[in-house]
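Exercise 4. Each item below gives a protein and its sequence. For each, produce the structure-token representation.

Item: Phosphoribosylamine--glycine ligase (Thermomonospora echinospora).
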Amino acid sequence: MRILVLGSGGREHAIARALHLDPVVTALHVAPGNAGTLEIAHNHVLDPTDPVAVTELAARLRPELVVIGPEAPLTTGVADALRQAGVPVFGPDRAAARIEGSKAFAKEIMAAAGVPTADSRVCESSREVDEALDAFGPPYVVKDDGLAAGKGVVVTEDRDEAVRHAASCGRVVIEDFLDGPEVSLFALSDGNSAVPLLPAQDFKRAYDGDRGPNTGGMGAYTPLPWAPPGLVDEVMATVVQPTIDELRRRETPYVGVLYAGLALTSRGVRVVEFNARFGDPETQVVLDRLATPLAGLLQACAIGGLDPATRLEWHPGAAVTVVVAAENYPASPVKGDVIEGLAEAAAVPGAYVLHAGTKLDEEGRVVANGGRVLNVVGTGPDLAAARATAYDAAFKIRLRGSHHRTDIALQASQG
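Answer:
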């Protein structure tokens, strides 16, 4: 099978790695990719959000499947353009991708489908913002209605900060605060049925102890030893399938991965948000443990042939990923510095390195080219072992000014 993956981050390297390990994949292309995908696939320089450029590349490569990694190409209609050209695509059309592109639309879908979520108000004026903040009280939860790469949400006790964030966004969703731990669950869908992957947990804040600004994610792990038994079945029945049914009813069938960001509150499971693509960095640990070959699953979704009775196979044990971020991330990351120690990190038994924000310089050296630069994955028989392996490898990476959290999966690994 010839496959084209769109994107350049750690998530896309993880997807490409899983496809590279699948024996049915005969040709693997990534656009634009990074220095890591270059080692296992053919990279192509293009803007993945440009439907015309992507369709032209697909016409040349003749892929049997295109896998869209990030959210931006979905909301610019890349999947629509490819489907119109007759190319099978794993990723929702622009209309269905609004489930991530607009928080207000997602709330509308959840209300229609009876999906449990926080009470909320859509606000477009300072008066509406003040009224909503009064109604819900602290801690205040203010979400940019549009795409914000995981950084559009402010949760704060400081009303002035909430007001400032709302003013900087324009249209916002203000909602009731959800208590309890958060869980990410991905479900693969062909527009009718869905099959769940393993739940994972990520770490949004930049620094240890969940301090500092929100980021795209600083690490993740699976399994979740503290998650209640039956959680996945409950979420599939009360969240995922009703959402897919509602989108199909609106004649915008959802084809791709539906990412449910969940809070396990004292009142039960609630949806924090939906995303229209694999989460980053949760994908890096979830796909590590997936034993079922990936290509056939994604193709079945793309062509409408996913068997709802599919039971995925999983490798035993645990996986932990630690994000190595560039100096001054997330504010204004420093780019261009040389990365050293990659071979030493990869030589740690049970560890490997996925590239996120990297490229090759003119001398062929791997350099930082983004905020989240590398994802160091550690595996082992349990979370404690996987975590130790991930950090053993991460400490071998040398990048001037870089930083990473030291508490990824710490609490879960201690039982």
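Check: Residues 318-413 form a domain with the Glycinamide Ribonucleotide Synthetase; Chain A, domain 4 fold (CATH 3.90.600.10).
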